[in-house]
Amino acid sequence: MSIERIVEQALQDGYLTPAMEAEVGRICNTASELSIEEYMALDRLMGALLTGEVVVLPRKQFINVMEELVLSEAIARVAEIEATSDRTLDVGDIAAYALNRLPPLYATTEEGANFQRSRAKEQLQELIAQQVNEAISRNIDQPDFFPERQVLGKSSGNEVLSQVSQLLETYAQNFEPKPRR
Fold first, then answer.
1. Predicted pLDDT of residue 22
2. Strands 55-56 vs 15-16: parallel, antiparallel or unpaired
3. Do residues 78 and 89 make contact, with C-beta atoms less than 8 angstroms apart?
4. Which residues of the chain are modeled with pLDDT < 70?
5. Contact 154/21 with Cβ under 8 angstroms?
6. pLDDT at residue 108, rounded to an integer
7. pLDDT at 158
8. Which of 49, 53, 146, 174 has its CA 20 to 30 A from that of 74?
């Protein structure tokens, strides 16, 4: 999706979703040059965000407790393997593989998260360990098909605004509109 379309959608809806925010960030990070139309769209988005015409939706107001349980297990197992061998394993790939095979355990409060944690430790710890072990086996056996893969980036609500501001600052001083033909 283009920056212009994202801005148009955000202005129409009145909000910028995390997916839209991530796409703007991706475009800004990967584009070597932005067109005048893209700069104008980013400027419109910036103005709409500053005036409140467009709001950034919060990232999430809930957690999947299974993510932290799987990550803890994966980190512990990977540390054991890496300490006793010359292997380097990708914890993110291992966790994603295991999480795709385990039930989510969402919570919206700390009390709910504690309940989900204790429930998972009682009922699902063996299954979690089993899925992490399977993920590690697959990761060890996996050839490096796509070395150019890029890890998903993290972005906060203000990160895109910061990136857009920085880009505008960097390029606006050198910008001279080309005469139209």
1. 83
2. parallel
3. yes
4. 59-60, 143-181
5. no
6. 87
7. 56
8. 146
DSSP letter string, 76-90: HHHHHHHHHSS----
* H helical segments located in 58-157: 65-84, 91-99, 110-123, 125-141
Cβ neighbourhood burial of 168 (10 Å; 0-12, 13-18, 19+): middle
User: What would the two tokens of residue 40 be?
Assistant: 């104008």
Cβ atoms of 130 and 167 within 8 Å: the answer is no
Q: Can you tell me which residue has the tokens 């005469």?
A: 179
Q: Who contacts 55 (Cβ-Cβ below 8 Å, separation ≥6)?
A: 14, 15, 16, 49
Q: Which position has the token pair 């309940």?
A: 115
Contacts of 170 (CB under 8 A, 6+ apart): none
Contacts of 76 (CB under 8 A, 6+ apart): none
